[in-house]
Design a protein that fits this description.
alpha+beta, 2 helices, 18% helix, disordered N terminus
């Protein structure tokens, strides 16, 4: 028999896309909170780096190209050393306003160990995102525009009020 934890893990894996890459000195994981969104919805793209303390890394920052996705927010957090590895987490809040199937492109992280002269590169895998449109039949909060409303009261009363306001405004301007 399966426990509630097994069901939860299966649902979590079905709703999250992720990729991993590693070398001896650095481990890289990327994931999104949703693989399917409605147009304009935010996606949380999280990149987690675990690396030995002596390894130098360069983070992509806001200069990263995410194809059809635009970056709404960006932050990174460096955590303390755990079991001989430092951990840095980069979080992008992204979205797109185009419908269809798209890929978040591979993101490169450059790193260098003390014995390396040149920078090396490790990349995430591409992550597929499906963007659906808002169907009018599902958009219950969108209502048709109402027609013009007739102002109650005499038209002469409103002409007098508007005339007085115009005279006051023109008096202040002169």
């Amino acid at each position: 028999s399966r426990g509630l934890g097994d069901v939860y893990k299966r649902q979590l894996l079905n709703s999250v896309s992720f990729s991993r890459a590693s070398s001896e000195a650095i481990f890289l994981e990327s994931k999104v909170d949703k693989a399917e969104i409605t147009i304009g919805d935010p996606i949380v793209l999280t990149i987690t780096l675990k690396y030995r303390p002596e390894v130098e890394i360069t983070l992509p920052g806001l200069n990263v190209s995410l194809g059809p996705f635009e970056i709404r927010d960006y932050k990174y957090q460096e955590k303390t050393e755990v079991k001989g590895f430092k951990e840095t987490q980069i979080v992008y809040i992204i979205t797109t306003y185009k419908t269809g199937d798209y890929w978040i492109p591979a993101i490169a992280i450059k790193f260098r160990t003390p014995k390396d002269k040149d920078w090396q590169e490790i990349t995430t895998d591409k992550i597929k995102i499906t963007v659906k449109s808002v169907k009018p039949s599902e958009a219950q909060d969108i209502k048709d525009i109402k027609g013009p409303v007739e102002i109650q009261g005499s038209k002469i009363f409103w002409y007098i009020i508007v005339s007085i306001l115009l005279i006051l405004v023109s008096g202040f301007l002169v």
